[in-house]
Design brief:
5-stranded mixed β-sheet, about 15% strand, alpha+beta, 5 strands, about 200 residues
């Protein structure tokens, strides 16, 4: 089983030209382009996350990085198999790619910025409802909150004090940002998702 994130930048035409470079920097840690991630058709992108348990947190991390530069994306996460490995991820195939692509086409209509599809409707209904609730605050993260979320996800072992050193702020300010971003809720959602997806992977 693998997972695929398909996304596009919201309002990319209204943004400054350097957002493509920013997006490349955000996606670079997730492997090689264009085999593991790719930006195509101007403002769309795709990332394969080979460990499905990491998929949700990576999508949230991408969102946090984008919100920290006053941008955002619509993203769908598809889970399933990979039956064809092409040189470019956008030309690879399998149920993970189909689930991600088909769901992505419906996001605008659904007015949601993040959703997932596994082929298991009970699982999807539960998790997508939780995601919609989480998006009520994630969609409105301001720059400072989003910066905190990105740094905290990328440095899971650091204390508040150490995160403060990275962000150039004191421990009390870190604590405030953590609360404002509802970060503990985000991590609880990720933990729940990991537990559930594990059960889906194991036959």
């Amino acid at each position: 089983m693998t997972s695929v994130i398909t996304g596009d930048i919201i309002g990319s035409r209204q943004q400054s030209e350097h957002w493509v470079e920013d997006l490349k920097k955000i996606l670079a840690p997730f492997g090689h382009t264009p085999s593991q991630w790719e930006i195509y058709r101007g403002d769309e992108f795709q990332v394969e996350v080979t460990n499905p348990e990491d998929a949700l947190l990576i999508a949230i991390l991408i969102k946090a990085h984008l919100r920290s530069i006053k941008s955002d994306a619509r993203m769908s996460i598809g889970f399933g198999d990979k039956t064809h490995q092409a040189e470019r991820i956008s030309e690879s195939n399998g149920s993970a790619f189909i689930n991600s692509g088909e769901l992505f086409e419906t996001l605008k209509k659904q007015k949601v910025t993040l959703a997932l599809r596994t082929g298991n409707s009970d699982f999807e209904e539960k998790l997508n409802l939780m995601l919609q609730l989480a998006l009520t605050f994630m969609d409105s993260w301001l720059v400072q909150s989003a910066e905190f979320v990105a740094v905290a996800i990328e440095n899971p072992t650091l204390s508040q004090e150490e995160l403060g050193q990275k962000l150039g702020i004191n421990q009390a300010a870190v604590s405030r940002r953590q609360k404002r971003a509802q970060f503990d809720l985000v991590m609880n959602l990720d933990r729940y998702f990991r537990k559930q997806i594990k059960q889906l992977i194991v036959p």
